[in-house]
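Researcher: Structure prediction, please.
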Amino acid sequence: MRPLADRQLAEVLEFRRDEGQIRFHEQRVVILSAAAVGLLRKELIDTLGTTTARRLLLRFGYADGYHDAISLRDHFRWRDPLDGLRAGPALHILEGLGHAEWAHLDRDDAQAGFSAELVWRHAYEAEQHLHHFGPQSEPVCWSLTGYVSGYASACLGQEVYFVETSCLGAGARACRLAGRDAAHWGDRIEGLRFDYRGADLAAEVERLRSTVHRHRRELRRRERLLDERARELDQLRDRIDRHARGQQFVLASTRMREVLELAARVAPLDTTVLVSGESGTGKEFVVRMIHDQSPRARGPLVSVNCAALTETLLESELFGHERGAFTGAIRDKAGLFEVAGEGTLFLDEVGEMTPALQAKLLRALQEKEIRRVGGERAIRVQARVVAATNRRLRAEVDAGRFREDLFFRLSAFEIVVPPLRERREAIPALAQAFLQRAAARFGKSVLAISPEAMTRLVDYAWPGNVRELQHAIDRAVILAAGPSLTPRELPPEVQAGTAAAAASDTLDLAHHERRLIEQALDRFGGNRRQAAAALHISPVTLWRKIKRHGLKVPDGP
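Model: Predicted structure follows.
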């Protein structure tokens, strides 16, 4: 009989083309590419870790080698177990797993001793490991080592283990395996048995199964949480839409929807809120929504414009006064903090407050109590405070015009309402809604806005924001002579398309205002009353603007 190495693979394997099968002594085999086995190896290491993957591949190789030895023995019926051992490397050569040869092979029948050394060249397993993980510090031919161990154990009918002493994957020129029977491994035998046969693999698989099960439970929990959050978000958006429709608020901008979602989220929480944004952007609507969506909706929403009152009047409005506190105080009066009760107190244009009032407001927010003007008794208050401003309070703090501690107290949760020029996609819907309302109010049969007029509306910068847009549409409806608005009915600045100029004017407004005030004060020798009359504003407003711009004027009327 020719040695196995001299045979072709077709003589060892039976190819059953009609059945799509390959048989090796009644044992079905399959041919897999080295790349596919390498990818499987990578998945095992990535999923189980190197230690567990190594043991799994050792045991897989052991079982594979053991079965191959049994099949070859039944097929060739060798009498000497060493003949079977010599046939093993030849089988691997025929299968394309690498070039293997025994460097040493010895068996002591009297003492059942066995020792051997096998040399592997071009081992596919080392090549695949190098491809996926690069050079290693330890040998990596785990399944091939397990294969030789199982093969030798089946041939000899005793417990035999091989270990890899050098490896192509660890920088060696070839892979070398040293094998011995169990009795001659000494103290290492328990570790080898643990690697090859230990019950830890089942325990590890069970641990991994439990880990996967735990992760799946956590994933399902997170999916339920996401579903709940999605339902809450849908309900939140539904509340926003209903509120907007109820207030005839046109919600046609993603940015504005995000603002209202923030308002709806903070509404149930009992914290102060600061609503910032330019004049005419819709800050009052946001404040109204916070109140209506909060548990305080059953109480009143009390508003005060901090820019419309003098310091003395504003203090009296907020905190109230006792009879006789000042000239004209003929009776006790409750302040708005008291009037709001357990509702909401809305401080509009809070950035206009004087430093003295800022200090009193801070104390009211911190202590939850107030004192009426001229009073001595502290009064507990429960109102929630929501403030609004068209100023950048952070810049006001840096300039020393607004208390930093009050800023942080008011801005516990800040909502910034974007100007209309930053949400131009809402302009067509807003313009059409304003058109319908104005046509009904003025009794005009104006139904649409011409494309040319709509282009002008979208291109304009709208320094006055939504309020300016509404006034522009009202004006156009009044002037309209037909069923459709044309550019002729729009305000001159909108007709001219002076968006850039309007934006520039907005940026320069503070500079021009300062110059006009300086010129008026200089003209009237510092007389604030005469300067205010010339500027067509009240003396109180002029005083505030002087403070805002940091102007110095002589003391006087």
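Model: The CA atoms of residues 63 and 119 lie 21 Å apart.
Researcher: Thanks, that helps.
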